[in-house]
Every structure is written in structure tokens, then in C-alpha cells.
Predict the structure.
Amino acid sequence: MRGGSVSAARAAEIESVIDRVTRWASGRGDVAGLLLVGSCARGAARPSSDVDFVLLTTAPYAVASAAGSAIGEPTLTRSWGPITERRFVTPVDPGTLRVVTDGACSLYDPAGLLAALLGAAG
């Protein structure tokens, strides 16, 4: 379990979400990587923690449409130059930078892009 002080039921729920998203991402040719970030990646999840992912894709509009049909409509869409952020649930933990730099766990990385990113980050 990638959680901290959570009940067995909550740990199973978190793992179920992680497994479902990982299976979905690994089954798509347009997904280049999936990174688990935040408290679950750090092993510090609390009962109220959400599950945060960073998704690298070669086809952002197709992936956003497919993800939206699977998990709902985004609550926030923001463009950051070559990166588009889409939040499907407002995160509990504020600050995308802190979430990404505080801990990360590569879930799907067929070309090693995330490994290189994590290595460069520190």
C-alpha cells in the first residue's frame, strides 16, 4: 500500500484507484508515462487524501476525452505552455509543484521518460 495512516478499507480503495488508472494508461498507445505523486507516492496518505497523477501523453485531447468519459468532466483546465493541466477532482493538497516534488512513484514508463525526469529533479 502506498499510503500512510489509513484503514485497511481506505488502503484498498486507494490501491484500486491506482491499479485502475495504471491499467487504463498502459493500454493506450498515446500515453507516454504515468506518475503517482503526492501523499500516496510518499507513503503518507491520510483518510482524507486524494490520489494524484501526472500523465504524459502524445495526444492530450484524445486522452482528456477518454479519461473524461471514464472518470467525469474536469473541474479545472489550465494551459501551461506545452503542458495542459486537467484536474478531475480538486486536490486536497494545494500546490502542484509541491505535490510533484514532494514524492513521486513511476507507475508506467515504457520509454524511461519519467525515470529521466525524476533523476534530473533530484
About this structure: The radius of gyration is 14 Å. Residues 8-109 form one domain. The CA atoms of residues 22 and 107 lie 6 Å apart. Residues 90-94 have pLDDT under 50 and may be disordered.
